[in-house]
Amino acid sequence: MNRVSQFELKVPCDLRYTSVIEGFIDLLPLGDAGLNAAEVSYIKSVLNEAFVNVIRHTPEAKQADGVLVRFDLDELSLMIDLTDHGKGICLNELYPPYLDEMVGNSYPLIQTIDGTVMAEVKDNRTACLFFENTDIDSLERADMMAKAREGGMGISIITKTMDRVEYFYSESNENHLRIYKTFKN
Q: What HEC string does 87-116 produce?
């Protein structure tokens, strides 16, 4: 059985703290899990994108609560959980908890040039995020530009590169973005 180490860091909901979070990753024993410097840098980039998304989507009144970042690490995997008190992920024009009739359905979250970030509602409080590719070779340049919009690249990068991405809305009205990565041994 793998021993899980847990690490936590709470920071203000402020972009000036991205470097603090990235620096905290350097303190984690990721080398013990077999990650090289390039892979650690990659994890920093993903975490940076997730943290920026949390800040952008947390109303100013809730920013005082800060962001809790928890890392669960063992020799086979890493789970990063970012917890905030924002509105949550809006699906089909509804914020969580989601309606019963939404369970089992997938909804587009963000459209990018090369595809769509989708959210499959697992239950009233949980959605799994994934990326659905678009064949960009078949698109005209005008169609590509029409699909492009400001924002959305962060969650697109996260869903494309990590093994699993979940959003969970807790009963205490906290949003959890959970990002999972399995290591190759």
A: CCCCECCECCCCCHHHCCCEEEEEEECCEE
